[in-house]
Design goal:
heterotrimer, A alpha/beta (587), B alpha/beta (365), C alpha/beta (374), B: 365 residues, alpha/beta, 2 domains, 14 helices, 5 strands, 9% strand, C: abc type-2 transporter like fold
């Protein structure tokens, strides 16, 4: 036998052959065949509902495939489940932690379950606690950890017993860039040690770093191979439109109308475009981007390729824009200070969650709050929308404190929560009726508003479906529809695209851009840096304080250095946080 | 603002009625309880076994045994032949009551002398046994009176008002109107708010123009509606299926159901304000409900309780409501008669709702 | 099904932490039981020790006054006097008295005439049938006494009397049999109600998925839920027994080990039912509702604890045979008040064993090893 042949089969940890799975007659996976190798991180990429979680559960032996064969380490996950589970680590979406147990208790539980005892346990606890930087928090209850720490603890629990195979289901949803980077470093060092890692994600910047990717869409495998090869195929099709004069949002919108462009996004003051064909450029004059505007070729991203594979992005015209009237502020509201935080402070006992934060947001501006998990971003956000009382200082919206003010003031805002807080056991139509109703719409006006939203967000096929059963992307649309039904001039968005795939995110931002052009003022929190690029201004919150504020480009400029001549938003975020840490240590 | 309130209530009703499973949960337990409890929850003694050790054998003693056997309480009579056997049947719960008739019973009775029979009663089930003893005593006293040589000085004429034949069902069904609605109403109110908090929709409500009062009303009215509908189903079944007389007015019944619903909703909201998740809300409502039922006077009269428990019973909305419902069904209560119970209900509702409102304000921030 | 002690201990420890840290489970396991014991023990007094009786005396004659005095002297009657029949009837309607004795203006005269023409009228509150029965029999007793005293001047009435002897519970304290019965309700609450939430909670919070991906076996999963709640139930049981015997003075005549055995078997069924509901519904709200209807209410209504099973219609009696609490109540009442009467205990033990095997078996069979339920 050829020795190299043996080596190559040995390198394969998981082999899928024509795997199909159906839930109650609905196909979730269709004839999927792929090999997953050891020693690299394999990204499992695709929009929500593509079948990523199902595939991971099949490999972990938690579900039995309807057809086809799965071999994990040569074993059938269902028939040889007992043997396989000793070699397999699986981290489900909510990390599988017991919130009422402490960090150490969670670790001990999983160590016992995975048969890690005695000296080996001491050794692996020390290694994992150091690895995840949780050693200081062993006594803390898991429910009291920040999102990033939960994620690390989940990983530590999964890694007990040194599995040969690691399955991670969307480990980075709701987690800040610093924690994401740390997690990535940890997992790649594991892969370097020979572990087979399957990392599911709907974020393509994450997938870009994987050794290999499996691109899925609607239960089918669209691509498998190295991300680089896929990006290379996009060579020459990714461009940056720079030095724009005038409204960059409208430039983006016009660019997306061009038949030469299949996708586009804001990037600070510039607009990033993906061409249908390399070399076929859109007519620069028709973009009305000003006399100095110029197109520059840039490195393609995996996201460009992904959107290309799906046949292009959603286009820049939001039907919402036609539907929404220009946003009007009540009489006497200063258009330069629609939302104002003045020395805003919130204490929980001794702990200062928000520490003398100041900002003011103009009419028609998108203001983004960024920051690591647990830095006080959510506290600040909640005080602004009146969900949390202020300890000192002031949070004013249109000159009023929302917590004290009459309901007329709250009538002026739209609010979209992190988890798309919809009534999961009501139908889509019932949710729309409910939210329009509590904002005082009734009769013909209510029917018209609901009908408009159904049309704008293409919700018609789902009207009688339970909101809880919608695919995530549609949940997000519905949540936005519910927040906009009463045409508010102000919009509060709390991590509005958490866990949502790129196409849905594009679409979401094209709606927001449309609204902003109508004069709607937006305040948003996010963990995703491509989203931060859409903001006019950003406030970076860390340890309760606003450590930097400015336009995305200004923040990036703050961290330009010799090693980082052209920092990304994520680089800027991390560098600014680290700089603050250093300054704190110095004093 | 009426329209917003209506929207809130409609949402709550849709959530309750949308899935077949939750529809079943609202109706099936009610029907099941309606089917079983009127027959089960009875303190009457029927179909019991009486053990008799007849040492006499005279004509009078045989007649007495036949009379005892003719009652509804003792269709089965177990004839015993020794004192030992009497002990055994009681030990083994084969009979509730054992009566021993002395050797000279017939003779002494004929002679007009006094004679004593003995009854052994199973104290493990002292209530049923005592009732059974009461039945036996009546038969024996009647029998003795007939065999007496002296004419009685007077007659005791017993007339049971409101329920001439002391039908136990007439007592059970009005009480069930109160008890079964308690479960439904409390669950709907206490758990739905906890669920909104778990699912994050609560914040969505707080940022909307709805004031806390509206949000609470939006939770309170559906709970009251559930109580009302379930209560009406049971009341209808009581009247048409179980043939319990209805001597009051429907209007008063509905009015008092609403007052009762309001006081329950107060407790429900208070519990949900105190709990941080559904499990706590459920266990909390349960911890409220079981003492409330026991102290309501349904299982035993409130007047028999020691003073501290009577005081607790005074703030138990169920104890007031049961009196009203029984009064409306059986005693022809009008507003004047119901008022002594109605105002405590309203007072309870006012204080729990106020407290819940304060808690709600504190918790929502 | 293989079993690893290490994994089992780890899972049980986790479950115990969760119990101890959740205030609501402590409330249900330790606070509510004591509360219920006291309420059942002192709140439910079925014996109607002193009934409130109204007397309408329209006749001032000697015979009537003697009767009224006899009524007032009865230890079972709290009498209130009035001359207005309408006022007393209203009191009866409002429930402030439970019976009204009416002596018409010609009562004494008719008694003197003899021939039994005199009538004592007794109105009872039929809306409270149990109390009405008591009122009737108390008044009947007083009436007999009065008659006997009148005729012969002696305290003992002549003719046939029935002497009562209460076995096991000579003073007929309802507490002595209601408290053992209420222990069955408490064990149902801990066994079925609390456990109906625990597996569903793991599904809702996503921890079940993580557990299933570890080498845990079905048997370990099941046992790790049963053992901690069994111990919790036993702890609550011990507390109930202590409170009942030491604080409330309820006798315990049987031996502790039989009590232990009976309770263990009953907890087996209750835990099985609770876990089954939790496993099959995977939803806390629904599981808890089912547990309420399927376990708690039957334990009160159909167990023979308050309401006599023999008095129920045959169809309902048939249903009670399916309810484990029925056997538990019977065994508890015998153990507490009578001691080891084996013919009674053995039957109950047998049925409790069958029921525990049935519910636990069904739960074991329905406990999944995968997400799709197998």
């Amino acid at each position: 036998m050829n020795p190299s042949m043996t080596a190559s089969t040995d390198a394969i940890a998981i082999r899928l052959q024509a795997v199909s799975h159906t839930f109650a007659g609905r196909p979730a996976l269709c004839e999927l065949s792929a090999d997953i190798r050891r020693g690299v991180i394999t990204g499992l990429v695709g929009p929500d509902g593509a079948g990523k979680t199902t595939l991971l559960r099949l490999m972990a032996g938690l579900l039995k495939a309807s057809a086809g064969s799965i071999r994990v380490e040569g074993l059938d996950p269902v028939m040889a489940g007992d043997a396989l589970r000793l070699q397999l680590g699986y981290m489900p979406q909510k990390f599988g932690l017991y919130e009422d147990l402490s960090v150490l208790e969670n670790l001990t539980l999983y160590a016992d379950l995975r048969g890690v005892t005695g000296a080996a346990r001491e050794e692996s606890f020390q290694r994992l606690l150091a690895f995840t930087d949780l050693a200081r928090f062993t006594e803390r209850l898991a429910g009291k950890l920040s999102g990033g720490m939960k994620q690390k603890l989940g990983l530590a629990c999964t890694l007990l017993g040194s599995p040969r195979i690691l399955l991670l289901d969307e480990p980075c949803v709701g987690v800040d860039p610093i924690s994401r980077r740390e997690l990535w470093r940890m997992v790649s060092s594991l892969a370097d040690g020979g572990m087979a890692v399957l990392w599911s994600t709907s974020y393509l910047d994450e997938a870009e770093l994987c050794g290999e990717v499996l691109l899925m869409h609607e239960g089918r495998l669209q691509y498998s191979g190295s991300p680089q090869a896929l990006m290379d195929s996009m060579q020459g099709r990714s461009l940056l439109l720079q030095d724009i004069a005038g409204n960059r949002r409208q430039v983006l919108q016009r660019a997306l109308r061009s038949p030469a462009v299949i996708d586009g996004a804001l990037q600070g003051h510039a607009v990033r475009l993906v061409l249908r064909e390399a070399g076929v450029l859109p007519d620069l004059a028709s973009l009305q981007a000003g006399p100095d505007a110029r197109l520059q070729q840039v490195k393609p991203r995996l996201e460009d390729a992904f959107i290309d594979l799906l046949g292009g992005g959603p286009g820049g015209d939001s039907p919402l824009t036609e539907h929404m009237p220009p946003a009007r502020l009540p009489e006497g509201v200063d258009a330069d200070a629609v939302i104002v935080a003045e020395q805003l402070t919130r204490r929980f006992g001794d702990f200062v969650a928000t520490d003398h934060v100041d900002f003011r947001i103009r009419r028609g501006e998108i203001f983004g709050l960024l920051g690591p998990n647990g830095a006080g971003k959510s506290t600040t956000f909640k005080m602004m929308c009146g969900l949390l009382p202020v300890s000192s200082g002031a949070a004013r919206v249109m000159g009023l404190d929302l917590q004290q003010s009459a309901s007329q003031a709250r009538q002026q805002i739209g609010y979209m929560a992190q988890k798309f807080a919809l009534y999961g056991n009501l139908s889509v139509a019932q949710n729309l009726e409910f939210f329009s109703g509590i904002y005082g719409l009734s009769g013909a006006r209510q029917r018209a508003a609901v009908a408009d939203m159904v049309r704008v967000f293409a919700l018609h096929p789902f009207l009688s479906m339970n909101a809880g059963e919608l695919p995530l992307g549609f949940k997000q649309r519905l949540a936005l529809a519910c927040a906009l039904m009463h045409q508010p001039p102000l919009l509060f968005l709390d991590e509005p695209t958490s866990g949502v795939d790129p196409v849905s995110r594009r679409e979401f931002w094209s709606h927001i851009n449309g609204l902003v052009d109508k004069g709607v003022t937006v305040m948003v929190t996010t963990h995703f840096m491509d989203e931060a690029e859409y903001c006019d201004r950003i406030g970076l919150v860390y340890r309760g304080r606003m450590i930097a504020a400015g336009t995305p480009d200004a923040l990036k400029a703050m961290v330009v250095s010799a090693e980082l001549p052209d920092p990304s938003m994520e680089d800027a975020f991390i560098a600014l946080v680290e700089r603050d840490d250093r300054q704190r240590e110095a004093t | 603002m009426w329209q917003r309130l209506f929207t809130l209530i409609r949402k709550e009703m849709q959530a309750l009625l949308r899935s077949p499973q939750s529809r079943r949960l609202l109706i099936a337990p009610v029907l099941l309880q309606l089917l079983l409890f009127p027959f089960a929850a009875t303190l009457e003694v029927k179909n019991s076994t009486l053990a008799v050790f007849n040492q006499d054998g005279g004509a009078a003693s045989i007649e007495l045994v036949q009379r005892l056997a003719a009652t509804q309480a003792f269709p089965h009579v177990l004839m015993l032949h020794s004192q030992q056997a009497m002990q055994q049947v009681i030990d083994r719960q084969q009979a509730l009551l054992a009566i021993s008739l002395p050797q000279d019973l017939s003779r002494k009775l004929a002679a007009g002398q006094s004679v004593a029979a003995q009854a052994i009663i199973d104290g493990r089930r002292s209530n049923s046994a005592q009732i059974a003893y009461g039945y036996a005593l009546q038969v024996i006293q009647q029998f003795a009176a007939e065999h007496s040589h002296q004419a009685p000085a007077a007659r005791l004429v017993v007339q049971n008002l409101y329920n001439p034949n002391l039908e136990y069902r007439w007592f059970v069904l009005p009480s069930l109107v109160a008890i079964i609605t308690t479960i439904g109403c409390l669950m709907v109110t206490a758990l739905s708010l906890a669920r909104e908090r778990e699912e994050g929709t609560f914040e969505q409500l707080l940022v909307s123009p709805l004031t806390p009062g509206y949000i609470m009303a939006g939770k309170a009215l559906p709970g009251m509606l559930v109580a009302l509908v379930q209560g009406c189903i049971i009341a209808a079944a009581a009247v048409w299926v179980y043939q319990v007389p209805f001597s009051g007015t429907l209007g008063l019944l509905i009015l008092s159901m609403l007052c009762y619903g309001l006081s329950l909703v107060g407790f429900g909201l208070l519990i949900s304000a105190l709990s941080s998740n559904q499990q706590q809300a459920f266990l909390g409502s349960f911890a409220f409900m079981s003492p409330a039922v026991i102290l309501s006077g349904y299982m035993a009269p409130v007047e028999n309780m020691p003073l501290p428990l009577r005081m607790v019973s005074a703030v138990d909305p169920l104890s007031h409501f049961i009196i009203i419902v029984k009064g409306i069904f059986l005693k022809g209560y009008g507003l004047a008669e119901a008022w002594p119970q109605l105002w405590p209900l309203l007072a309870i509702a006012a204080s729990t709702l106020a407290l819940a409102y304060l808690m709600f304000l504190r918790r929502s921030h | 099904m293989s079993l690893s002690l290490r994994r089992l201990v780890a899972l049980c420890r986790k479950e115990s932490y969760q119990i101890v840290r959740d205030p609501s489970s402590i409330l249900i396991a330790f606070v509510l039981p004591v509360l219920l014991l006291f309420i059942y023990g002192y709140g439910i007094n079925l014996d109607a020790n002193r009934v409130r009786l109204g007397i309408v005396q329209q006749d001032g004659g000697v015979e009537a006054s003697r009767l009224v005095q006899t009524l007032q002297a009865s230890p079972y009657i709290a009498a209130s006097l009035s001359s207005s029949e309408a006022a007393m009837r209203q009191q009866l309607q409002l429930g402030s008295v439970r019976g009204v004795v009416i002596l018409r203006s010609d009562f004494s005269a008719k008694v003197r005439q003899g021939q039994g023409a005199a009538a004592i009228q007794l109105l009872t509150d039929g809306a409270e049938p149990n109390t009405a029965n008591f009122v009737a029999s108390y008044v009947q007793g007083v009436f007999q006494l009065w008659q006997a005293q009148r005729q012969s001047g002696q305290a003992e009435p002549a003719g046939l009397t029935l002497e009562a002897r209460y076995w096991f519970n000579p003073t007929t304290v309802s507490r002595n049999y209601l408290v053992p019965g209420s222990i069955s309700v408490i064990m149902t609450i801990i066994g079925a109600l609390l456990t109906s939430l625990v597996v569903a909670r793991e599904w809702e919070r996503g921890t079940m998925e993580a557990l299933l991906s570890t080498p845990v076996t079905r048997a370990e999963l099941l046992l790790s839920k049963i053992i901690p709640y069994y111990l919790l139930g036993m702890a609550a049981m011990s507390m109930c027994v202590l409170v009942a015997t030491l604080v409330m003075g309820v006798p315990l005549r049987g031996s502790l080990w039989v009590l232990f055995l009976v309770t263990s078997l009953f907890l087996g069924s209750a835990l099985g039912l609770g876990l089954l509901l939790s496993t099959t519904t995977r939803n806390q709200f629904i599981a808890a509702q089912f547990a309420l209807t399927a376990a708690f209410l039957p334990a009160i209504m159909l167990s023979g604890f308050v309401f006599e099973i023999r008095s129920m219609p045959l169809a309902v009696q048939a249903v009670t045979y399916l309810i484990p609490a029925r056997y538990f109540v019977s065994a508890l009442q015998t153990l507490f008040q009578a001691g080891e009467i084996w013919p009674v205990l053995l039957i109950n033990l047998l049925f409790l064993l069958l029921s525990a095997a049935f519910w636990l078996g069904l739960t074991a069979w329905r406990t999944p090893r995968r997400l799709d339920g197998n």
